[in-house]
Design brief:
Blueprint: E1 4-6, H1 7-36, H2 42-88, H3 97-129, H4 134-150, H5 152-165, H6 175-178, H7 190-193, H8 204-228, H9 234-242, H10 247-251, H11 253-256, H12 261-265, H13 267-292, H14 298-323, H15 325-345, H16 353-381, H17 386-406, H18 413-442, H19 450-454, H20 467-474, E2 479-481, H21 485-491
Antiparallel strand pairs: 1-2
Helix pairs in contact: 1-2, 1-3, 1-4, 1-5, 1-8, 1-13, 2-3, 2-8, 2-9, 2-17, 3-4, 3-17, 3-20, 4-14, 4-16, 5-14, 13-16, 13-17, 13-18, 14-16, 15-16, 15-18
Length: 492
């Protein structure tokens, strides 16, 4: 008996597992940069450069690359940019990490914009064919993607943890050192904390082994997408190339999108996504974990984040069909606020081992909402300008990342936690304004109950789908036989 899956679902799975492999490599390296390459702040500097380059890339590249190359080949080329950073980590220095960080950042914006555009196209194709609500299918597909993708934190960090576990010395922890961990950690205390052998330098053999494994895994992700992902927007690419292209108009499409006041109102909430991920990867791992119990535990701690994020991504992706996005955003806000306040008050000690894993688990649960629901929100609100909208998403999220990493070497943890609270609350107020605008513009035409408004049902009958998705939806949905390679070759 052969298992048959929809063509669109098959493509969603290929994109998801391609990203899983790629970010198993990059995510594992990102989690340990601030601890592994701590000399002169090299690790955090490389992360800052990545997201600075990503900001510049977001301004111009995604719309042009996606329209000229299509989503598939934009993803493939951008994934190759990520692999270069793994190669740069073979010999980490200012002359290797910074250039490869620039290359990675340049490819980051087209990669994520193409992925979001591709999943949105898949969702509306499936919805049109099976008479489903497009918004619900897109939410579901983003849930599947983040279920698979976020598990990359598990595998990437597991690799680094296993390697460091057998190569790190036992930590020499004293009360004097612990006084500078957690909320009391400040950049000016790094010299004192460095006396702790949790910050020990690892041999080049260990670094080479880790980099080789990550590079191989990243290349595997590139090959998976290049050979097995369908080129769904091939017709649109051909039509675009035949037209008289106004390159300047396409290049500035990201900025043109800012004429939409809803896009402007979502900027702060989108930036918060970068702030909160940047804090966990750059500050929590260094000030709470490495400082207190050692770099060998960073991977295990981040595994909790990845596992929690992965599981709750699919759960919230399905729940949004019944609850709508507003209650989920409210839940994520409350969860993050509670975690931030607890981190502000907690003075970590080695004997409190379970607590180190609780915070990333809660953080992952909240981040699952920020990722799935914000991506889906952009896809629904800006369906007619999805390439430029997702470029803006990556642009402003990257602004949050680069800001968090940039001030990491200058501000104390207490100040960083206060910044998180301010950005979060401001972002949610502005997001609430967007929902109010949507209700006034579309919901007042046909009165709805409060529960229907919370679920976003006042938007479902009024959203206009672009012509390209209408045409794509009319095409016969193909099914793909899941067979062995030999069977496929035999049929060919």
């Amino acid at each position: 008996m052969m298992l048959k899956i929809e063509r669109t679902t098959k493509n969603v799975l290929i994109v998801s597992f391609g990203f899983l492999l790629l970010f198993t490599a990059f995510g594992g390296l990102q989690s340990i940069q601030s601890s592994l390459n701590s000399d002169q702040g090299l690790g955090l500097a490389s992360l800052s450069v990545i997201y600075a380059a990503l900001i510049l890339s977001s301004m111009f590249l995604p719309p042009l690359m996606i329209k000229y190359l299509g989503c598939k080949w934009t993803i493939v080329i951008s994934m190759c940019c990520y692999v270069t950073f793994s190669i740069g980590n073979f010999y980490p220095s200012w002359y290797t990490l910074i250039p490869t960080a620039i290359i990675l950042g340049t490819g980051g914006a087209p990669l994520w914009s193409a992925k979001c555009t591709y999943l949105t196209i898949c969702g509306y194709q499936f919805a049109k064919k099976h008479s489903k609500i497009g918004e619900n299918v897109v939410n579901h597909y983003f849930g599947i993607f983040f279920l698979v993708f976020q598990s990359s934190a598990v595998w990437g960090n597991l690799l680094s943890s296993l390697i460091f576990q057998y190569s790190s010395k036992k930590a020499n922890i004293t009360d004097e050192i612990l006084a500078y961990c957690g909320p009391n950690n400040c950049p000016q205390h790094d010299s004192k904390v460095s006396q702790n052998v949790t910050s020990v330098h690892h041999s080049m053999a260990v670094i080479h082994t880790l980099s080789a494994i990550y590079t191989g895994i990243g290349i595997g992700g590139v090959l998976l997408v290049a050979f097995f992902l369908d080129h769904l927007d091939k017709k649109e690419v051909q039509d675009f190339k035949q037209k008289e292209i106004k390159v300047l108009a396409v290049l500035v499409a990201t900025f043109t999108q800012l004429k939409d006041k809803r896009q402007c109102l979502l900027i702060v909430m989108t930036m918060y996504s970068g702030f909160e991920q940047g804090f966990l990867a750059g500050d929590y791992t260094k000030a709470y974990v490495t400082c207190t119990i050692g770099i060998q535990f960073v991977g295990y701690v981040m595994i909790c984040f990845g596992a929690s994020n992965s599981i709750f991504s699919v759960i919230f992706g399905k729940m949004s069909k019944y609850t709508g996005r507003m209650p989920l955003f409210a839940f994520a806000t409350i969860t993050n606020l509670a975690s931030i306040m607890a981190l502000f008050l907690w003075n970590p000690r080695p004997e409190q081992m379970p607590v180190f894993f609780v915070f990333p688990s809660l953080w992952g649960m909240a981040d699952a909402i920020w990722q799935t629901q914000t991506n889906a929100l952009y896809g629904v609100l800006f369906l007619n300008n999805k390439e430029a909208a997702f470029a803006n998403y990556r642009l402003w999220e990257s602004v949050g990342f680069v800001t968090a990493f940039a001030y990491a070497n200058f501000l104390c943890i207490e100040i960083k936690l206060i910044i998180l609270v301010v950005v979060l609350l401001l972002g949610m107020i502005m997001y609430g304004t967007v929902e109010y605008i949507e209700y006034v513009q579309h919901g007042s035409e046909n009165p709805h109950t409060i529960s229907q408004i919370l679920r976003g049902e006042h938007l479902k009958t009024t959203k206009e789908k672009p012509n390209e998705l209408e045409e794509e939806g009319k095409e016969e949905t193909e099914t793909t036989d899941v067979k062995s390679v030999d069977e496929n070759n035999a049929e060919t």
